[in-house]
Write a structure and sequence with these properties.
119 residues, mainly beta, 7-stranded mixed sheet, 0% helix, globular
């Protein structure tokens, strides 16, 4: 079973950049589709980005397209979310998640890392 631990969240000014990391444990990481989600105060959790097992297919929410980049290093069992041109509306807890490539549901979640963007 894969376990996930996010890191890299902090307070940053609008227009700044951050890189989030998601370290995974478990032998099946390399076969998993990985995703980043976020939840802002008072809002539902929303999809941010995903990447397939090989890294050659990525998807982004419209709200982050062109500003965020998801990537993975299977040798290091780590997924990254590079965030540029940050906006105050990007403030949220960011969660890493994993799912079987053949299924739609993400069934493994990390505890999240807080990103706060000040105006």
């Amino acid at each position: 079973q894969v376990q996930l631990v996010e890191s890299g969240g902090r307070l940053v000014q609008a227009g700044g950049s951050l890189r989030l990391s998601c370290a995974a444990s478990g032998r099946t990481f390399g076969s998993k589709t990985m995703g980043w989600f976020r939840q802002a105060p008072g809002k539902e959790r929303e999809f941010v980005a995903s990447i397939n097992w090989s890294g050659d297919n990525t998807y982004y929410a419209d709200s982050v397209k062109g500003r965020f980049t998801i990537s993975r290093d299977n040798a290091k069992k780590t997924v990254y979310l590079e965030m540029n041109s940050l906006k105050p509306e990007d403030t949220a807890i960011y969660y890493c998640a994993a799912r079987n490539a053949l299924l739609l549901k993400y069934d493994v979640w990390g505890r999240g890392t807080q990103v706060t963007v000040s105006s």
